[in-house]
Amino acid sequence: MVTPVVDAAAVARAIEAMTAALGGDAIQTDRAALDEFRDPFWVRGADDHDVAAAVMPKSVEEVQTVVRIANEHGVPLWTVSTGRNYGYGGAAPRVAGSILVNLSAMNKVLEINEDLGYAVVEPGVRWFDLCDALEEQGGKWWSSIPDLGWGSVVGNSLEYGRGHTRYGSHGSNICGMEVVLPNGELMRTGMGAMNGNKAWHVYPFSYGPSVDGLFMQSGMGIVTRIGWRLMPRPEKYASCWLHFDGDEIIVPVIDTMRELMLDETINNYPFLGRGVAANAEGQPDLDPTSQKWALRFALYGYEEIVTAKWRIVERKLGAIPGVQLGMKLYDGTDRVGPDQGIHDDRVQAGIPGMELLDLYKVPFGPDTGHLDFSPVGPLVGTEVLAMVRRVRGLYEQFGEPYAAGLMLLPTSIIVVSVMFFDPKDEAKTRAIYDNYDPMLKALAGEGYGLYRTNIYKMDAVADTFDFNDHAMRRFLETLKDAVDPNGILQAGKQGIWPKGMRDR
Ligand code: ADP
Description:
By secondary structure, the chain is α+β, with helices and mostly antiparallel strands. The chain is built from 14 helices and 19 strands. The strands form 4 sheets. Strands 12, 13, 14, 15, 16, 17, 18 and 19 form an 8-stranded antiparallel β-sheet that branches. The protein has a 5-stranded antiparallel β-sheet with strand order 5-6-10-8-9. The chain has a 4-stranded mixed β-sheet with strand order 1-2-4-3. A hairpin with a 3-residue loop joins strand 18 and strand 19. The protein binds adenosine-5'-diphosphate. Adenosine-5'-diphosphate is lined by residues 79-85, 91, 103, 123, 151-152, 154-156, 158-159, 222-223, 490, 493. Adenosine-5'-diphosphate binds next to strand 3, helix 5 and strand 10.
């Protein structure tokens, strides 16, 4: 376990220099104001991941200035776009005493390309902002969105966040980045590496190695803009659901879904929920014995296509004993408001909202915290059932209700489960985070890694990626030391520590 010590005097000098360079308005140092950046899902009142200050650059040049000052003084920075990464640490840094670089003031939608279907956004652009901008331009393009609309396109995508339309693999939707490197230099990736290149945000590769992935879940740079793929508004959209009661029905459902996804009958990213989230209306179902599952998925396209696809879906999925299947058909131009339809109908049509937050507040009231545990496996029915039973068994062992939201890709699945707690209850909160470690070990021992984790578990999860005595970690540390020799950026992010802080 790494316990880096931050030189508070150096941090104070860096804050002074940033204040001089950017103006006092750009820096927050007031303790009460900084509490806003604490992780709302960590022990209430705990100060062990507090930032020393928060700086809010308004331009790329100001980001470069901040990075250069951090190098001069050798102080750690932690970047957020909007800091809504709840469940993973929110805006809180891995290293206490870091200076938070809050990019939410850089919030321009720089371009919407109506012919090619992409947007270019700055880090502070929230899902709400992008979708409003798309509507203002006539609504011919939809964006994929995650379940809550208040976070940013950039922050979520860099974390490999997930959405629920055709372009729900947010990490893959990025096409061309602009990045401030840890030495303060500005770089553009892909075709953008050429001055004036016309295909920066449409051609996804580079001349030579593609480096975009190096800036995802990473401390190798501060991303200041991305190109983002959009989906053409379909003529018709069917919001579909399937319910069943009994874990074993997961097997035929998953195997049939794989077929339908691989042949592109279903071409969104479906979601299979237990307890919370899918077909969420009213109360979560946290009865530990309940085996009620709800799957949601969508069909998009011309009326003839959606009608034909639905017939195929009915024939294939409808034939599974014990399932109920249904759908609601919308015109692509219907923008379902908060009082119409349910969350599933809206989120699969790229209409951002906050309704799911209410559901997540039911277990312990407005302060409810949750910790997600998300191993990835192959999309094979028997494998998915085995993973669900394994994780459910661990929840039973800990005496926690099993709530799950499984995210389907055409050949893989993220078997997300959720533990709820009240962050005001310190002992319980710590116990929930402690439960994570045996779950992690158990699943890693059986060949399942996590797709994402929160700041407290970054080292533990990195330890599980152990092929050839952590060859991947050594490679990433080599890169980290080369591009960030002073170790100023996102130290410890995903378990990658700069040279000066490694004590392994
Ligand atoms: P959200 O969009 O959900 O508010 P955050 O802004 O909290 O997401 O970002 C999630 C994580 O992604 C951060 O903790 C940070 O590690 C990383 N991150 C966010 N924005 C950037 C960025 N512009 N450049 C590099 N890393 C970033």
